[in-house]
Amino acid sequence: MSFSVTPRGGALTGRGGWRAGTVYYQDDIVVWNGLQYQSILPVNIGYQPDVSGGQWAAVVSSSVIAAGMYRGAGLTATASAWTKIPLDTTSFDASGGMASPAQGRINILAAGYYQVHGSVGFVGSASPQGVEAAVYRNGFVYNKGSISTWAATGLGISSLVAATAFWNTGDYIELWYFVNAALALDTFPGSTYLDTVQIQ
User: Whole-model pTM?
Assistant: First the structure.
């Protein structure tokens, strides 16, 4: 199988998520609702892949688009400022290329509706503290999670965040936090993590 860098027939050309107004050419490959489709027309515009059998052919019967990451290395929080957690470990990457430890984030490779879940956890402290997690989209806050506080000595604290949204190809999502003291991050994989799955 060969991939062309020019949008013409004769070699398969990966074009990312399908968009209604984009012109596609013969042998272009697009992703739509988690499936891959190959254009079978010399020029193909405006035909939705899953309902246009004369214009597109399914390449793969089904696939999962999902990724998850967590912070495995120790980290001391920056107090009283929204701060990104550089996620450094991939828990899963079903479609390949979404989880990026080098960038500390998840990159969206195909447009669609996604569910996102995240958590930020810190180990206990000797004084009352509070924490809030957030999902950032392309460097800006998209959704904030629960605000958690505690007054007991030595207990951990965490904040959960979730979102369902339409992400575009090329978007990226990050896990951020706000905490009012320089606490140590809980590096247990189920405590500080971010994951996403395409649902449509």
Answer: 0.68
